[in-house]
Every structure is written in C-alpha cells, then in structure tokens.
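Progress report, Aim 2. The chain analyzed during this reporting quarter is listed below.
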Amino acid sequence: MRRKLRVAAYAVCVRDGQVLLARSPGPGGTPEWVLPGGGMEHGEDPYDTVVREVEEETGYRIELTGLLGVDSSHRRFPGRFGRTVDHHGVRLVYEGRVVGGELRYEVGGSTDMAAWQDLDALPGLNTVRLVDVALRLWRERPAAGRAVLAEE
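Predicted structure tokens for the chain:
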C-alpha cells in the first residue's frame, strides 16, 4: 500500500455575505467548488503557500488575518496499477482579506474558474467537504481550531 501525506493551506475570504471559491473539474469531470488554496511546495511556509495559491487561482492578492484551524482527512482509494493509496491530508485554514488584484480565472492549473458565491446559496452548490469545515471554523472559531462535522 502506498502511503501519501499532503499538507495544504487554504483561505476563507468572506465579504458582503459572499465567500470566494474556485471551481475544480472534480472526480469524473463533475465540477465542484473548493476553497482557494493548495499544496505546499517543499520548504515553503504554509502562510506563503496560501497567499501564492489564492493569487494563482483567483487573481487576488490577500492579507491573512488569522489561522482558523486545521482539518485532517484520512482515506484509502484505488491507485494506479491496482495499488491502494493510503492518503492523509492535513489542511491549514486561514482567514484572508482581499487587498488587491482583479478577479480572473486560473489558466493551466487545478481550477478553471473563481467567483464570489452567496453564503446562503452554498447548500445548492456542489462543494467539497473542506468548504463546510472551513466555514464552520470561520463562524464558530473554536479554541482548539478543529471543526467536527455531523458525519464524522
């Protein structure tokens, strides 16, 4: 079994009742909305990761205003050549504020669109689990920096 650890950093940017999201092709080609952010490069600080990734995916420059928490996911799935992958994702979730740039879509990256989405409309969108976790961290600001969803 192949073991894989991925550390990533994401931003929750909320203004005027909307949250900034990016759209990813998703598994099987079904688009899904994700938080802007992504995987750390070797030797990169998570703070720098999220600032870089948000600009790459949305065109915005952000200022991080706080660390909301950490989300951890562990799952197994079929990999290449019939080998199971034991994947552990550690995701640092920051709060961010747009300070410059212009909204644009990423070209040749992991997302194809970025948009401000109404917080009230999120239940009707196809979002990844991390969006729910991150918004719960943003709303509740738990002292331990961990949000547990009902299905866990």
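The longest strand covers residues 60-78. Residues 11 and 71 are 13 Å apart (CA to CA). These observations will guide the mutagenesis work planned for the next reporting period.
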